[in-house]
């Protein structure tokens, strides 16, 4: 977790550090735009930012497994499973056993889910990914390196990277529920592939 109570030794004022000012302003603009996307999606469709993102990925990948959805959403299995549980409860997706592998659960969007998607604007994570992909390859690499370094200096480099604007408490509740019911699984490490 980020260390609390730390303050910069000197305030950033005037022309003292334009790089810091430009960076903070850019973060503010990006976060404001993403929050507006999330708010519009929720008002239009009742979907949270994470639900809208996962639903969009399922629409592109009918019959995808939890691991495949986790890969598509660039997050971990536990976070994807938590959102899938909520979408299933809403009736926006259905969970079915694979006809080819009884150990595999597959998710498909329902008519209700498609109606919600039609009402929802672009999910904020999709807007962010599209913006990053519009950069040149050297710009993307520099951005990734700089943001990764920033997470380290802020002390959050090893924290889980859950869904954008998602409540981490939801993932914890879902994991606890699965463990209590005897169906819990150890979350798949980020970047691994299903076996």
What can you tell me about this protein's structure?
- There is one protein chain.
- By secondary structure, the protein is mainly α.
- Helix content is 56%, strand content 5%.
- A two-stranded antiparallel sheet has the order 1-2.
- Helix 2 packs across helix 4 (77-90).
- The longest helix has 28 residues, at 18-45.
- The protein starts with 17 loop residues before the first helix and ends in a 15-residue tail after the last helix.
> What count of domains describes the coordinates?
1
Assign the CATH architecture. Orthogonal Bundle
Helix coverage percent = 55-70%
Overall radius of gyration: 19 Å
CATH class: Mainly Alpha
Classified in CATH, the superfamily is Winged helix-like DNA-binding domain superfamily/Winged helix DNA-binding domain
| End-to-end gap | 32 Å
Q: Could you outline the blueprint of secondary structure elements for this entry?
A:
Layout: H1 18-45, H2 49-60, H3 66-72, H4 77-90, E1 93-97, E2 105-109, H5 111-119, H6 124-133, H7 137-153, H8 168-180
Antiparallel strand pairs: 1-2
Helix pairs in contact: 1-6, 2-4, 3-4, 4-8
Features:
195 residues, mainly alpha, Arc Repressor Mutant, subunit A, two-stranded antiparallel ribbon, 8 helices, 2 strands, 5% strand, disordered C terminus
């Amino acid at each position: 977790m980020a260390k609390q109570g730390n303050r910069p030794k000197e305030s950033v004022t005037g022309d003292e550090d334009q790089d810091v000012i430009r960076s903070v302003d850019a973060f503010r603009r990006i976060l404001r735009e993403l929050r507006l996307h999330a708010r519009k999606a929720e008002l239009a469709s009742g979907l949270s930012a994470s639900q809208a993102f996962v639903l969009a990925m399922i629409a592109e990948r009918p019959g995808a497994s939890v691991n495949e959805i986790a890969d598509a959403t660039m997050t971990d299995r536990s976070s994807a499973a938590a959102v899938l549980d909520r979408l299933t409860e809403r009736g926006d997706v259905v969970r079915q056993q694979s006809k080819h592998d009884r150990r595999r659960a597959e998710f498909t969007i329902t008519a209700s889910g498609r109606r919600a998607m039609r009402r929802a604007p672009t999910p904020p994570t999709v807007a962010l990914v599209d913006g990053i992909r519009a950069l040149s390859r050297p710009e993307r690499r520099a951005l990734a390196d700089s943001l990764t370094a920033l997470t380290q200096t802020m002390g959050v480099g090893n924290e889980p990277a859950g869904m954008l604007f998602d409540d981490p408490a939801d993932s914890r509740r879902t994991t606890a529920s699965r463990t209590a019911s005897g169906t819990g699984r150890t979350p798949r490490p980020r970047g691994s592939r299903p076996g």
